[in-house]
Amino acid sequence: MAEALEDGPRGPKPKRTFSRRNIILYGTLIVIALYYLLPLYVMVVTSLKGMPEIRLGNVFAPPLEVTFQPWVKAWAEACTGLNCDGLSRGFWNSVRILIPSVVISIVIASINSYALANWKFKGSEIFFTILIFGAFIPYQVMIYPIVIILRELGLYTKLGGLVMVHTIFGMPILTLLFRNYFTSVPEELFKAARVDGAGFWGIYFRIMLPMSLPIFVVAIILQVTGIWNDFLFGVIYTKPDNYPMTVQLNNIVNSVQGIKEYNVNMAATILTGLVPLVIYFVSGKLFVRGIAAGAVKG
Amino acid sequence: MATSQRPVQLFRNMSAKIAAIPMVLTALVIFVGCTIWTIVHSFTKSKLLPSTKWVGFDQYERLFSQNRWLISIENIAIYGICSLIFSLVIGFLLAAMLDQKIRFEDTFRTIFLYPFALSFIVTGLVWQWVLNPEFGIQSIVRGLGWESFVFDPLYDADLVIYGVLIAGLWQGTGLIMCLMLAGLRGIDEDIWKAARVDGIPTWKTYLLIVIPMMRPVFITTLVIIAAGIVKVYDLVVAQTNGGPGIASEVPAKYVYDYMFQNQNLGQGFAASTVMLVTVLIILIPWAYLEFGGKKQHG
Fold first, then answer.
1. Which domains does chain B have, with CATH numbers?
2. pLDDT at B33 over 90
3. Topology (CATH level 3) of domain A88-297
4. Backbone torsions φ then ψ of A80, nearest 5 degrees
5. pLDDT tens digits, one per residue of A148-189
6. Using CA atoms, how far apart are residues B79 and B229, in angstroms rounded to an integer?
7. What pTM, to 2 d.p., does this model score?
8. Burial A247-280 (b: 16+ CB within 10 A, else e)
9. How far apart are CA B246 and CA B119, in angstroms?
10. Considering CB atoms only, which of B19, B182, B238 is closest to A112?
11. In sequence order, which residues have a C-beta less than 8 Å from that of residue A142 and are 6 or more positions away?
């Protein structure tokens, strides 16, 4: 690998395509890429085989006979406990959790960041600092008191409670994201609007919101993947009927009773990973921006 | 501005203050309030319900006499150290390779990063399947003729945490690569030119010039990885559920199990407080380095 780096990395593109350096560099990259793609390949291949074929072969062999039966079973028939209506239940639960959580967390965080960026008041920076440091506190420290709070509010095991939890724990990263963006909006624009008589909400809806659509997209990507992939909050703050897809998937695959149907398990796993994967492949660079936004500045 | 009367302090900038209420509540009630609540109750005799009967450090003494907790700590230490080293090394090497003005950079980046879009549950289940000794890697190598080949990390108590590590690295190194790549791109082109004029070999330029220049990126990345490690939970639940036996238990799982299944809240509180202290030990020096100097400017 050291050899691959030996030539000037920032120099002009080498003339010969098949120089020794290039072969080593691309060779290494392709091998690593194959390693990263392998699990995805194994998932897809396994989910398309019948159980007899799985028992005979290995996980890497392509299916001899393609069947979509495992997919149907994973979606509509797989059992968790007493419910045998497959992952579809978890899917719709996740959708029901996802939509209000994403909308509410982004609305609250964006307005809050706007206040922090453009309408500073005494103490606002202190709360912001607490918020950012709070992002590093292990969730385990806060989960039980939150159970008590939600119980007092009558929201424990209810959808509303989980939405609240996602809003709370999404707040640090979203606030950071929006605040950094709003701060970069030229102050003259803000002042001109004030001179023209626009108030807090007027400026937000007429100037800030239309100007910051890209950052809203980044925030949506961030929240959709984060909330869809959540397991801990789902398992703590909902009851079995409302379990999100990740929790149900884990219950289906790791259930102790019955024969293990590996093809159904893998189909279920793909189905659960599909939503964030689609978002990832569609959004491309915006996804990278989303995850790097908090990280680099943080 | 006209000579209108100054409004009462509290009501100045009222809309902004209202907009900031969710943040203030989150910061004070959840991040500060709940954390303190848990720390205080870790010194009590809480069992099925939180109690206020003070018992000093009893819970901690019991915690550190539990074999399961000691194994959890050992596991997270091994996982943490390996994960830190490998994430940084692999992440940096991948970033350096992608920074060689290669073709298909976007394709490679997309492949290395896609696992990051998947949840830990999906990651854990896929790797549980790939590492399955009956059908996975072990069976393939045996099929090639090496009958005595053994590779079943998930069923070997001594190796299981490394099995989890493989999955964790697969999921997380893409993110580190992206952060490192951003750092590499931030380095002035002239540095490379100067190094080349001086005839310094590329690997030496990386080691002695570029990496020291990327110190802030490394530190931020380190903090992000470290904060994530302490929270490791879903991955273990999905991949091994702590098994075989208690060989792959982690602190976050200990907290969850004691709080919500074994009905021994005190142990959960004490364990989560230890997790918090660990994070603080990592975080405080970093915060001091990062923000300590800037504090004077307010």
1. 66-297 (1.10.3720.10)
2. yes
3. MetI-like fold (1.10.3720)
4. -130, 115
5. 999 999 999 888 999 999 999 999 989 988 998 898 888 888
6. 8
7. 0.88
8. bbbbbbbbeeeeeebbbbbbbbbbbbbebbbebb
9. 23
10. B19
11. B30, B31, B34, B35, B38
Are the C-beta atoms of residues B120 and B238 closer than 8 Å to each other? yes
The answer to whether A100 and A163 are in contact (CB under 8 A) is: yes
Does B110 reach chain A within 8 Å, measured CB to CB?
yes
B12: left (phi over 0), alpha (psi -120 to 50) or beta: beta
CA distance B278 to B67: 19
Question: Pick from B16, B37, B127: which is nearest to A145 by CB?
Answer: B37
Angle, CA of B278, B282 and B285, to the nearest 5°: 135
From the list B137, B171, B169, the residue with the least C-alpha distance to B151 is B137
Whether residue B283 has pLDDT greater than 90: no
CA A231 remoteness from chain centre? 11
Q: How many CB atoms lie within 10 A of CB A180?
A: 15
B-chain CB neighbours of A254 within 8 Å are: 238, 241
Q: Which residues lie closer than 8 Å to B103 by C-beta, 6 or more apart?
A: none
In angstroms, the separation between the Cα of residue B82 and the nearest Cα of chain A is 19
Read off the tokens for B121.
């549950």
Q: Which of A140, A190, A253 to mutate to test the interface with B (most CBs of B within 10 A)?
A: A140
Domain boundaries, chain A: 3-72, 88-297
Tell me if the bond preceding B244 is cis, omega within 30° of 0. Answer: yes
Q: Does B113 touch chain A (CB under 8 A)?
A: yes
Closest CA to A3 of A32, A35, A25: A25
Asked if B126 contacts A265 with a C-beta cutoff of 8 angstroms, the reply is: no
pLDDT in tens, A65-75: 888 888 998 89
